[in-house]
Amino acid sequence: MSFHAKPNIFVNQVELKVEDLQRSLDFYQNTIGFKVLEKTDRTASLTADGAHPLLTIEQPEDIKAKEPRRTGLYHYALLLPTRAHLAKIIRHFIKTGYPLQGASDHDVSEALYLADPDGNGIEIYTDRPSSKWEWKGKEVVMGTNALDVQSIMDEWDGRPWEGLPAETVMGHIHLHVNNIEEAKHFYRNGLGFDIVNNYGNQALFISTGKYHHHIGLNIWNGIGAPPPSENSAGMQSFTLVFPYQTVLDRIISQLESVGASIAKEDGVQTVQDPSGNKIRLIVE
């Protein structure tokens, strides 16, 4: 999964606010298959490999239900290493009866969609080999087609579901924004991402290293949609990993040149996009 390693810039973790920590833990452990890495009375960090957090959940004291029609998280996406792993989790969802919201073949990937108990969107997917992706100029071809579930199930290795495989990574994040042009300017000219697919004037997909997308952006909650209240359940922030400190330093200068304000929280530099989505900026 070299698209999620140096020298690329990619998402490695998402931080969520939830209404009920124990309810969320039950879901994320028993339905999705995370392991608990660390836990307090109000927070938990979740991992696939037992060492690196992919998701952090927190129950603030004054939390309220997720507000509709706001900017913020559309979904975060867990990338599984093989189709056999996707087959295994499909069998698990069938067995548990947990409802899916959709399933699609996107040409570059095959994906399942569902939501957690707070309504946070989740995609679980596998990539097709990048050698099979079709590019037209600088844009990658991505469709929304019916998923061939039987073809995936034919790759099941016969072993039972045992949670997320250790090789699972945060494949991408897809955000609600309130202005596509402002978002394009911030993520391209500020954060340094390349545009790899324009979905009309409704959505935009961006990446580094010619991945099909590390970040998706859409205006499906409405042009001018407000950001959620601070105490609304939903996304708190997401974390972008930069390959070297020199790269992050250059990006900080670019962000300041487009009018973004850099803050520091617990020793980590943060920035908000024009729609109010908070991004943590780290080097690994």
TrEMBL record:
The keyword Amino-acid biosynthesis does not apply. Transmembrane segments: none annotated. Pfam families: Glyoxalase. One of its GO terms (molecular function) is catechol 2,3-dioxygenase activity. Residues 10-127, 169-284 form the VOC domain. Keywords: Oxidoreductase. The keyword Oxidoreductase applies. InterPro entries: Glyas_Bleomycin-R_OHBP_Dase, Glyas_Fos-R_dOase_dom, VOC_core. Its EC number is 1.13.11.2. This is Catechol 2,3-dioxygenase.
